[in-house]
Amino acid sequence: MNAEKNKAITDRNFKLILLLLFFSFFEESLFSWLSFSALAAMLLLPLVILADFIKDGIRLGKDEKAIIAAFIAFIVLQIACIRLDALYTSITPIYRSFTVLMTVLYARRLVLDVSKLKALNILTFATLIIGFITFFFHVEVNSHVLIGNYNTVGVLYFTLGIVNVIIYLKNRQATQIILFICCIAMILLSVTRTALLLMFIMFALWLLLKIMPKAVIKPKIIYPLFFIVIIGFVWVYYNIKNLPVYSTLNSISLALFNKSFDSGRPDLWHMAVECVGNNIFLGQGTGIDLETFIPTVKTPHSVYFDIYLQNGIIGVVLYILCILVVIKSKGKWNKSSINLLLVSVVFVIVFYNALGIVFTKARSGIGLLQWLLIALPYSVNKSKLSYRRIINDKLNNSDIQCERVS
Questions:
Q1: Confidence class for position 374, pLDDT limits 50, 70, 90
Q2: Which of these, 47, 50, 283, 328, could form a disulfide with 311 (CB 3.0-4.6 Å)?
Q3: Phi/psi at 192 (nearest 5 deg)?
């Protein structure tokens, strides 16, 4: 009876968390009350997760302690770089880091059973309904009246699309295929090139990993390669306008999308570097943005350049450390279709945040959903998707058991 009661409470809390995520999707809404609801949702979400931990018992294994230590190091740096003359905007990213930590720890304990899968389907379906209806009946210039800028529309449905691919590999239901196609349709409507490109890269990488030798794609080998690729791309993109190939790429982009190839991102990155000036180690202060220096520009459109602006090189190193510790703690590795997809998901999401601000955006539930995806443990069975509670066996009690759902 206690086990059934605990499961019912856990399911209820999961649905509450999904409801808060749903409201957070309206952070950029043109309706102020919806935007405020997104703020309230993001304030409540980590507290709901913390309450769930307290109710269920806070049991920390070696991996959890490593994750907490990495995030605490980054948060301490953020606190050290607080700007006393802008206390609210300094505290906001610190609370965001705490929220991300709670989300990551929650993902590690998450078991996707039938009830939770249905709740995820409802979340995707509801988000698609409001997206399609509003898209066709309330047209704004380069902006969705409920979700906001088309780039935000693209990243939202890109992330929900990934969720449905993962669920499909778990239950092989046609529902996920339909929902995924609808997500792609929303990305096409928003003409979000980054989302389209990275969705293609995710599937291409997934297929490539399937044919690569098992020894090559072990996490301790493949993830460092991923970061080398991302760092290399950022360097090339940062200098793209100085390269001879830029004119050709720009012409193709204008012909296909009526947009410049770089979308101004390299210029924003250069601005961020210039604004940091000589404060390369600690940046210009937690919570600061480009608008402080350049009134017409808000952010550098890259999580890593945004962190560099605020907390310098040390901040970037510590944040990447947080990512590395999270993906290193995903559990026992074996080569299976679902695990290869989870590896591909890590790459595209980390890459996406090199080209936009999702991870660190204060009221972005999309960013939290992405953190949850890269923190999901590997499947321990080749034929089943099993998100076990990753806690050392000696710390488990009789009411907490690993679950496998066929």
A1: very high
A2: 283
A3: -95, 100
> In the numeric block, which tokens belong to residue 325?
């510790």
- Cα 157 → chain centroid: 12
Over pLDDT 90: what percentage of the chain?
57
Chain centroid to CA 6: how far? 29
Question: Where does the pLDDT of residue 138 fall: very low under 50, low under 70, confident under 90, or very high at 90 and above?
Answer: low
Tokens coding 14: 């999961």
Within 25-113, residue ranges assigned H as helices are 32-56, 62-80, 87-109
CB contact set of 343 (below 8 Å; sequence gap of 6+): 209, 217, 219, 222
- pLDDT band for position 381 (cuts 50, 70, 90): low
Residue range 358-384: average pLDDT? Answer: 85
Q: In what order do the strands lie in the sheet with 148-149?
A: 139-140, 143-144, 148-149
The pLDDT tens digits for 182-218 are: 999 999 988 888 899 899 999 999 999 999 888 778 8
Q: DSSP for 58-77?
A: ----HHHHHHHHHHHHHHHH
What are the b/e assignments for 316-341, b being 16+ CB within 10 Å? bebbbebbebbbebbbebebbebbbb
Maximum distance among all alpha carbons in the chain? 69
Pair 216, 222: CB distance under 8 Å: yes
Buried b (16+ CB within 10 A) or exposed e, 58-87: ebebebbeebeebbebbbebbeebbeeeee
* Continuous segment of H or E residues that includes residue 306: helix 303-328
Pair 348, 202: CB distance under 8 Å = yes
Helix axes 219-238, 265-276, angle to 10 degrees: 90
Helix %, strand %, coil % of the chain (to 5): 70, 0, 30
Which three-class secondary structure state does DSSP give residue 143?
strand
DSSP string over 166-205: HHHHHH--HHHHHHHHHHHHHHHHHT-HHHHHHHHHHHHH
CB-based contact 61:329 (threshold 8 Å)? no
- 3 state SS of 262: coil
Q: Which of 173, 144, 170 is nearest to 157 (CA)?
A: 144
Residue at 338: amino acid letter: I
Element (H, E) at 148: strand 148-149
With contact defined as beta carbons under 8 Å apart, do 144 and 134 qualify?
yes
